[in-house]
Specification:
Number of strands: 20
Largest sheet: 9 strands, mixed
Number of helices: 29
Strand order of the largest sheet: 16-17-15-18-14-13-19-12-20
Structural class: alpha+beta
Strand content: 5-15%
Shape: elongated
Distance between the termini: 15 Å
Radius of gyration: 33 Å
Helix content: 55-70%
């Protein structure tokens, strides 16, 4: 076909008018694409802002407490002997030292805690001047053992003002302190209180112990040598670190959780890019004759490609800009309602306004535009490569949807992805696992047209003529059918993968809770470092009427390596020969060598510290290194930093610590909980927490659901994008087949019959897409469960498939595909039949 050679400016004006006309006539479709991009960008921005704000606030809190310190001596939560302090103070090169008591104290009568920092207020001025700069009070009040100065955050969250009492639970008793004043804004950027160190040691039952020592070195001192000198004086379990190492250690605790949230946000952006692809494919098919006319007027394939890519960029720009605003708003709301950890429990008490990070905003904006650009690229290059004469004829939509041979490229991507599942974590992050998921998804999408062609060739022809026409149409246009199926496969497979992963985690957690909560009733002294049962309290609990048997546990933490967060130590009754009846061991316990001290470690300890059953390692207890034997590995879903279980009698002999944190009670037959709970409170006090296993399980699962709320939201997004993709794909087919519908009307088919034919096509493609998506989603879920989860959190889980939920979703998607296909033909069916046929001539 000959082409005219109009000036480039005229061609550009005509092309712009065509694009603008499409937008005005059908604004909903590009807006829908922009919504998909906006949602992906919003999730990414929100997660980044929340994480960055939480880490920044945590860092500021650590730096405020450390002040001008060059080094920090940090001990376990139960503290270390204060005799270390004068020895460090006398070392050469030490300019100033500031001893501190730092505890998480339970608020009396409340299920909350407050960080209490006890400082030597005279020495602190040389190391932590910002903490004491605003304390303009008399010496009597400064050193009053009952006086505390609280942060503005504590005053706001707890509703306190100067002069009000502040009740703390020490053991099971209440200690009442007095709020003497407020700290300056930004001094302690969390729910915290400051008091004199002597008063803190006395009133918090920490006499003779410290939790930290902040050290400022003299100018020109070699910090490496000073650090080595200090380390030589420290008891086991006490470490010397730099303040920035403390910040890094705290951030490490939540790093895997944050990375996983960021990856989920990128998944949303990925699906948004597919939505742009579907929408642009529709726009190209709707305007294929207009685009062909531009070619006749002299537009080059390059000019046409740039025009269509520019439309995709425009969608990306609008969507990404909206996503930045939505993401910021969501971050503000989430920080206020769920905290800086989105309910995961890593940064409790962190409440702050997120700060705009220009570089991050530019990156996420660019990612949004890039996703839209990539989504628009395939239809753009396909349209530009279609000859004008072919584009002006009916059936050209199949050629426009055709792509390169996919078989070997898709197989290569899937095979490479499978190899990545065997790779170890990169920097203790599951980057190889996520790479495997991305490659397998891309490979499956690449193979979808080939699989669709194979599927359509094997469908038996039904008897009803309309259904026969539906199958014949799909067989005649396998490329377009494959493009329609690809959107279903991507959205449904991601939905299936996340549903299986979350369900497996939830069911494994529920089964684990049932296993570790065998008693009838559990009694806890309270949350925090200051709540415990003394031996006298334990005797009262054991003698409570209706209690047949009781087992006490002691919970504390130790620092095995300054690069990692503290490891939990659980002292409880464990018989080495019957440990599998008490702990959820992953294998049979090993026989314990003579004179060895057996312990059972969680999966996180085994991974982080490279320790396996049958091996030994040093466990710091009561200031001494104890060589312990690993008798087995158990599953723990509570302590991501790891936990070590030791027999309580053995622990008491090694440490002399006879305190207990909680108790498991077995009641006598026929005894109900209410009278036992009443008797316990009358004997021990109202500060204790009493709960049945079912209540604890319900609370734990509620926390789980809150933590995974963003994952549930992402599943809903996947469903919506899948439905939108179906609608857009079948709209494209209906529009491109107007002439075909007109011919069918001429030969006697009624509109309802054509609608049923289209519905049959949609249901067939929907069923095939759901089937492929189910298989692909199951494969991806295995990677998420056994690779990503294992490398992220160092715990395993059992595979549980929510068959009922997946079946319901599959039925809904298939039905929706059929109904959407039939509905999408309404506009084409409403066209004048004769005019539709003439469009082909």
């Amino acid at each position: 076909m000959a082409t005219a050679n109009y000036p480039a400016g005229s061609r550009l004006l005509v092309a712009f008018a065509a694009s603008l006309g499409e937008l005005i006539q059908h604004p909903a479709r590009p807006l829908l694409s922009g919504f998909g991009i906006a949602l992906g960008v919003a999730l990414g921005v929100a997660v980044h802002l929340i994480n960055a704000t939480a880490i920044n606030e945590f860092s500021l809190s650590i730096n405020a407490i450390s002040g001008d310190a060059d080094l920090v001596v940090r001990g376990p939560r139960i503290g270390f002997d204060e005799s270390v302090f004068p020895m460090i103070a006398q070392l050469p090169g030490v300019a100033a030292v500031s001893p501190a008591v730092e505890v998480e104290a339970k608020l009396s009568g409340r299920a909350e805690s407050i960080k209490v920092l006890g400082l030597d207020l005279l020495r602190a001025g040389a190391v932590q001047p910002a903490l004491v700069a605003d304390l303009d009070l008399s010496m009597t009040e400064l050193f009053d053992p009952d006086a505390v100065f609280i942060s503005p955050q504590a005053a706001e969250q707890l509703g306190l003002k100067p002069g009000d009492p502040l009740g703390l639970q020490i053991g099971v008793d209440e200690v009442r302190l007095r709020v003497a004043g407020l700290l300056g804004p930004g001094t302690l950027r969390q729910r915290a209180a400051l008091m004199d160190i002597a008063g803190a040691q006395w009133r918090l039952d920490r006499v003779g112990t410290l939790n930290r020592i902040d050290i400022r070195a003299e100018g020109g001192t070699d910090l490496g040598r000073l650090r080595a000198s200090i380390e030589a004086l420290l008891p086991a379990g006490v470490q010397v670190v730099a303040p920035d190492e403390e910040v890094q250690r705290g951030a490490t605790l939540s790093r895997a959780y944050r990375v996983n949230l960021n990856m989920l946000a990128l998944v949303a952006l990925f699906t948004g890019g597919f939505l742009v692809f579907s929408t642009q494919a529709l726009a190209v098919l709707r305007r294929q004759q207009h685009l062909a006319l531009l070619r006749v007027l002299g537009a080059t394939p390059g000019e046409l490609t740039r025009l269509l890519l520019l439309e995709g960029v425009a969608i990306g720009v609008v969507g990404a800009a909206a996503g930045l605003a939505i993401g910021y708003g969501f971050a503000v709301l989430a920080l206020a309602k769920m905290g800086g950890d989105l309910g995961a429990g890593y940064f409790q008490g962190v409440v702050a306004q997120p700060e705009v990070d220009s570089l991050s905003f530019v990156i996420f904006f660019g990612l949004g535009v890039m996703a839209a650009l990539v989504g628009a690229a395939v239809p753009a290059f396909g349209a530009a490569g279609t000859p004008p004469a072919q584009a002006l004829k009916a059936g050209s939509h199949e050629a426009a949807a055709a792509g390169p041979a996919a078989r070997w490229g898709g197989i290569a991507l899937i095979f490479t992805g499978a190899l990545f599942t065997l790779a170890p974590a990169m920097g203790r992050l599951p980057l190889s696992g996520y790479t495997a998921v991305a490659l397998i998804l891309l490979g499956a999408v690449w193979l979808t047209p080939e699989l669709t062609r194979w599927f359509l060739a094997r469908i038996p022809l039904p008897r009803w003529p309309g259904a026969q026409l539906a199958v014949a149409q799909l067989r005649g246009a396998p490329n377009l059918a494959g493009a329609s199926v690809a959107g279903i496969v991507v959205s449904f497979s991601l939905m299936v993968a996340m549903a299986i992963m979350v369900w497996s985690f939830r069911e494994s957690l529920d089964a684990w809770l049932t296993r570790v909560l065998p008693a009838d009733v559990y009694v806890r002294a309270g949350y925090g470092d200051t709540a415990f049962f003394s031996p006298a309290d334990q005797a009262k609990v054991a003698a409570t009427p209706g209690v047949e048997r009781v087992e006490f546990q002691r919970h504390l933490s130790v620092l095995l390596d300054p690069r990692h967060p503290p490891v939990g130590v659980i002292a409880r009754a464990v018989d080495a020969d019957r440990a599998q009846t008490v702990l959820p061991l992953l294998s049979k316990p090993l026989p314990v060598p003579v004179n060895a001290t057996p312990v059972w470690i969680s999966e996180a300890v085994a991974d982080l510290y490279v320790v396996q059953p049958g091996g030994t390692f040093s466990l710091p207890l009561a200031g001494q290194q104890r060589e312990v034997f690993v008798a087995g590995i158990w599953r723990d879903y509570v302590r991501t930093a790891g936990a070590v279980v030791i027999d309580r009698n053995t622990y008491a002999k090694l440490t002399g610590d006879a305190l207990a944190s909680d108790a498991a009670l077995w009641l006598k037959p026929g005894t109900s909980l209410d009278p036992v709970a009443e008797s316990l409170r009358s004997r021990i006090g109202n500060g204790i927490e009493i709960a049945e296993p079912r209540v604890i399980r319900a609370r734990s699962l509620s926390v789980f659901d809150r933590t995974f709320a963003i994952t549930y939201a992402l599943e809903a997004v996947a469903v919506l994008i899948g439905l939108f993709g179906i609608s857009v794909s079948f709209s494209a087919q209906a529009i491109a087949r107007r002439a075909e519908f007109g011919m069918l009307r001429h030969v006697g088919m009624t509109r309802p019959e054509i609608g049923v034919m289209l519905g049959t096509e949609g249901a067939l493609l929907g069923a095939f897409g759901v089937t492929v998506g189910l298989v692909l989603g199951f494969a991806v879920s295995l990677i998420l469960i056994f690779v990503v989860n294992r490398q992220s959190f160092h715990w395993s889980m059992d595979l549980h498939v929510p068959w009922a939920l997946l079946a319901l979703l599959a039925i809904v998607l298939v039905a929706t595909a059929g109904l959407t296909a039939a509905w999408s033909g309404r506009q084409a069916l409403g066209e004048d039949a004769l005019r539709a046929v003439r469009e082909d001539w």
